[in-house]
């Protein structure tokens, strides 16, 4: 087994088999690697004292070694390591129609350092997503209101605050939930109204704030947090693997073709070297009815660079040559006339694609950027849905570059922030919050927190875990399924599910919920500004939230959530 496979199996054993939080698991692995222990087998065979020294905890060391020994026995019996009774651990074992969950990029191939990198932090926080409309519309969940607010906020911030990484969106969402809970507790008499954070002197009057679903939450800037050191790291292999087989013969009819234009000529320019050009990617291709969409973006400062950059992209990603369309657009400030903006676009047969990309660049107020949208036509016209898909990949590529582009951070979007945990500060630092940049995890450090004494933030992994455990499948009676003439649900033979099956089910349900929210926000994004979308989000939440009893008796109570009700809020042509 390769070192990378050893690493993945060990991480799975820790996070799934032992239910260790991802950040803590990664820190434990780093500690073990410091004493040259890198696999399940090595842990099982190593002296206990060695493991104890690495983890600085005798109980944890002994428990981990026993788990590794048990995993080795299962492996010798024919089951994979890191599983119980041979059951697969990876989320890819779920039916593909039920859930599309991108596996976390577990670890970089480089040797581990002393601190978690931003990339490792963001990778550990990835959430499941499923966009199967038929399945979403059939799903009924049981949950309470607070985690639904969190899910709304995390997904909404992808559109209203695209510059914020997932860790910030989770932190901001949890800050919103906390603020709403405090207000609700006061309104129903469960808590007394006290002085606010500014009156208590916990935060200054000039503390930055971010509006989320109509409520302003205090935030702390993360000091130039950058979680992409190289724009193409980790994306090239995924693109090549998924797009090399997607070819469209030149004789095939093209969707909505009205233009016949020549592709950009290929050339080489002396003042550009290949290493000078950095391309950001929208990620793995997005597929709909066999059509695949992908986008790339890079910096451009002169019109003369246009051909060189396009030629460079085709050399770096030759699979793009097989695409039906490679449309592009750019905006740049004229170096000779600083008050003049130069705009150019090219549809390459995908009618309106160039104008759409220019419109996106204007909306985001982005200059000196070139974006290329690639489509492999699948044989079926997509109608208006193609606009949504093109916008999604183009915006994703621009956002990726916005985090870091060739060493220069773009001005579009703003700086990453943490949501402040006011309640944690009022309680003197108790609770699930962080105060310093070096949080101890298994004897190692995670680059994390605020670095400001007394300032508490909402930890993103706490918010993520809250989401993963909060959405249960509603019972048949609650869902209104299989009713008899009298209107009562038929009794079914219940099969008791294992804890692992319940966790997988809740994760799947979260993916379906986030998919429903993404489809909702996607349908409105071209018709509302970010501020308008934020304002409407709360009304949409109120329209679909579970019905619970009013007053103190309804505090924390659960109710049913029909995901179809979220889909019904999507914009239509008549809206």
Task: Note down, in words, how this protein is organized.
With 575 residues, the protein is α+β, with helices and mostly antiparallel strands. Among the domains are: 1-74; 123-192 and 199-220 and 421-426 and 452-474 and 498-566, no CATH class; 277-404, Ribosomal Protein S5, domain 2. The chain contains 19 helices and 17 strands. The protein has helices spanning 3-17, 22-34, 40-45, 48-55, 58-76, 118-124, 133-137, 145-160, 166-187, 236-243, 306-316, 353-363, 385-403, 422-426, 460-468, 476-479, 499-524, 530-544, 563-567; strands spanning 115-116, 140-143, 209-212, 215-221, 280-281, 286-288, 291-299, 325-333, 341-346, 369-376, 417-419, 433-434, 438-441, 444-447, 457-458, 472-473, 559-562. Strands 5, 6, 7, 8, 9 and 10 form a 6-stranded antiparallel β-sheet that branches. Strands 1-14-13 form a 3-stranded mixed β-sheet. Helix 4 crosses helix 5. The longest helix is centred in the last third of the chain and has 26 residues, at 499-524. The protein is globular, with a radius of gyration of 25 Å. The chain starts with a helix and ends in an 8-residue tail after the last helix.
């Amino acid at each position: 087994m390769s070192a990378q496979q050893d690493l993945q199996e060990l991480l799975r054993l820790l996070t799934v088999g032992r239910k260790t939080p991802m950040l803590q698991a990664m820190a434990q692995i780093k500690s073990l690697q410091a004493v040259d222990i890198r696999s399940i087998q090595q842990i099982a065979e190593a002296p206990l004292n060695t493991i104890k020294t690495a983890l600085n905890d005798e109980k944890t060391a002994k428990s981990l070694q026993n788990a590794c020994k048990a995993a080795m026995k299962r492996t010798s019996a024919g089951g994979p390591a890191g599983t119980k009774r041979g059951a697969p651990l990876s989320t890819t074992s779920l039916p593909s129609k039920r859930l599309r969950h991108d596996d976390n990029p577990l670890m970089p191939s480089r040797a581990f350092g002393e601190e978690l990198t931003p990339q490792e932090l963001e990778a550990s926080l990835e959430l499941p997503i499923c966009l199967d409309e038929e399945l979403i519309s059939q799903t009924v969940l049981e949950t309470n209101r607070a985690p639904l607010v969190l899910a709304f906020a995390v997904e909404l911030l992808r559109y209203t605050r695209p510059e914020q990484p997932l860790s910030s969106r989770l932190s901001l969402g949890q800050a919103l939930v906390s603020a709403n809970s405090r207000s609700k507790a006061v309104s129903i008499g469960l808590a007394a109204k006290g002085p606010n954070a500014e009156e208590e002197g916990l935060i200054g009057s000039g503390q930055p704030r971010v509006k989320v679903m109509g409520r302003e939450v205090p935030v702390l800037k993360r000091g130039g947090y950058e979680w992409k050191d190289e724009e193409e790291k980790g994306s090239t292999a995924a693109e090549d693997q998924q797009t090399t087989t997607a070819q469209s013969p030149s004789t095939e009819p093209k969707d909505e073709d009205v233009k016949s234009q020549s592709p950009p000529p290929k050339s080489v320019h002396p003042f550009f070297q290949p290493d000078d050009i950095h391309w950001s990617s929208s990620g793995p291709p997005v597929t709909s009815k066999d059509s695949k969409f992908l986008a790339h973006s890079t910096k451009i400062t002169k019109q003369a660079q246009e051909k060189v950059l396009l030629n460079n992209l085709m050399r770096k990603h030759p699979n793009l040559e097989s695409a039906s369309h490679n449309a592009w657009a750019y905006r740049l400030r004229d170096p000779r006339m600083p008050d003049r903006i130069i705009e150019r676009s090219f549809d390459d047969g995908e009618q309106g694609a160039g104008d759409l990309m220019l419109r996106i660049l204007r909306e985001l107020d982005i200059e000196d950027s070139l974006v290329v949208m690639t489509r492999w036509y699948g044989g079926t016209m997509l109608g208006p849905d193609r606009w949504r898909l093109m916008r999604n990949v183009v915006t994703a590529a621009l956002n990726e570059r916005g985090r870091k582009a060739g060493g220069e951070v773009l001005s579009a979007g703003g700086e990453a922030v943490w949501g402040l945990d006011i309640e944690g500060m009022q309680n003197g630092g108790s609770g699930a919050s962080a105060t310093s940049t070096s949080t101890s995890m298994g004897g190692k450090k995670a680059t994390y927190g605020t670095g400001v004494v007394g300032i508490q933030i909402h930890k993103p992994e706490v918010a993520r875990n809250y989401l993963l455990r909060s959405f249960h499948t509603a019972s048949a009676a609650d869902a209104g399924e299989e009713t008899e003439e009298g209107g009562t649900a038929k009794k079914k033979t219940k099969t008791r599910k294992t804890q692992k099956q319940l966790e997988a089910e809740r994760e799947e349900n979260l993916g379906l919920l986030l998919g429903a929210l993404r489809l909702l926000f996607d349908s409105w994004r071209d018709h509302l500004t970010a501020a308008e979308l934020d304002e409407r989000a709360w009304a949409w939440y109120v329209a679909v939230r579970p019905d619970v009893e009013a007053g103190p008796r309804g505090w924390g109570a659960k109710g049913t959530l029909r995901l179809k009700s979220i889909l019904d809020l999507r914009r239509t042509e008549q809206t």
